[in-house]
Amino acid sequence: MAGEQITSEQKASETPWLDMDTKPLIRLSGVTKKFGEFVAINNVDLDIYEGELFCLLGGSGCGKSTLLRMLAGFETPTSGSIIIDGKDMSDVPPYERPTNMMFQSYALFPHMNVAKNIAFGLEQDNLPKGEIEDRIDEILKLVELQDYKKRKPQQLSGGQRQRVALARALVKKPKLLLLDEPLAALDKKLREQTQFELANIQEQVGITFVVVTHDQEEAMTLSSRIAVMDKGEFVQTGSPTDIYEFPESRFVADFIGSANILEGKVTEDSAAHVRVATDLGEIYIDHGQSTKQGSRVWVAIRPEKIHLSKKPSSKNGYNQAVGIVDDIGYLGNTSIYKIRLKNGHIVDVTAPNQIRPKNRTHSITWEDTVYLHWDASSAMLLKK
């Protein structure tokens, strides 16, 4: 509603990690996991709050699946503690934890229909038949599979099987749902559609989700917060906006999305701005950071933040360059231009294809001389 005031309570419920008085649902303290001499998880601390959709994001072998398995109780920490809902889980077996897990393979029983697959866990808990039927109907309505309860898994599409697996995990009403690469088996278009469906379902049920994924776009779309992992450690934790727009290292800037990363030297440092000499020329950054004149730093600029033109910018001095179009990648909605500067450095620029060109001769094409410029707020200063 226009003009409606957002209360501090509403803000706290949307960002509980910023509220010092809110207790986390999950607390990892000094958790380490070793397999022989190999350190899979290295002394990590993390708080996850009730109602979050939290993503563990990283490449293969970074430790994210090991961490998920420790939350589920399938692996035991070598040291440290895992607290879930105020209780130390050190000696609690998986079947007694307030958690459920959705596996990448979905693990549906092929000989059972949809309703029987969903009912399996409830029947193991000896719930009354009437309650089981009510819960099945409720959860099938939530995942929009009311008309498929009699079908076997092989009679369903990949997206439908994924929703059955989700329904089976949710029907037991766990406090925490763990999802291991839940969309990996789907094709790209269906995966993009299902990302929003999964986020909407999580919002409706209010259950805390912890999702493991290697897909940056998936993590950005789904999550309230992301923990980026590398070599068994958290390299940065924050909201998707924080991670993308304010990376704390070259690794994060390069891993999340694309970035032109340039090594440079600080030529001017003030409270309001920083100037850095790089291969791209002098870069002026209007958000000052605590650094030292003459220090070695790196500057990252996202390809979509750079403006591309056949005419030089009216501005003079910093935050601009000139080069030749070395290559073009046409992706339909966007185009990726690789611009070669005089010194041989290649800069990536992404531009939206907002207008269908009437005359191709006016478009930027191979071997064209082009001019680049970007806003003073676009560049990101990195110290490591």
* DSSP summary: helix tally: 9
Extended strand count: 20
CATH class of the largest domain: Alpha Beta
What would you call the structural class?
A: alpha+beta
Largest sheet: 6 strands, mixed
**CATH fold-level assignment of the largest domain:** Rossmann fold
Helix content: 10-25%
Number of domains: 2
Q: How far is the N terminus from the C terminus?
A: 44 Å
What pattern of helices and strands is seen along the backbone? HEEEHEEEHHHEHEHEEHHEEEEEEEEEE
Radius of gyration, in Å, reads 25 Å
- The proportion of strand residues reads 25-35%
Low-pLDDT stretches: 1-12
Lateral strand order in the biggest sheet: 6-7-8-3-9-10
Give the overall silhouette: globular
Mean pLDDT over all positions:
88
CATH architecture assignment name of the largest domain? 3-Layer(aba) Sandwich
Assigned CATH superfamily of the largest domain: P-loop containing nucleotide triphosphate hydrolases
Protein described:
The protein is built from nine helices and 20 strands. With 384 residues, the chain is an alpha+beta fold. The protein has two domains: 9-250, P-loop containing nucleotide triphosphate hydrolases (Rossmann fold, 3-Layer(aba) Sandwich), CATH 3.40.50.300; 258-382, OB fold (Dihydrolipoamide Acetyltransferase, E2P) (Beta Barrel), CATH 2.40.50.140. The strands form four sheets. It has a six-stranded mixed sheet with strand order 6-7-8-3-9-10, sandwiched between helices. The chain has a five-stranded antiparallel sheet with strand order 13-12-11-14-20. The model is unreliable at 1-12 (pLDDT under 50).
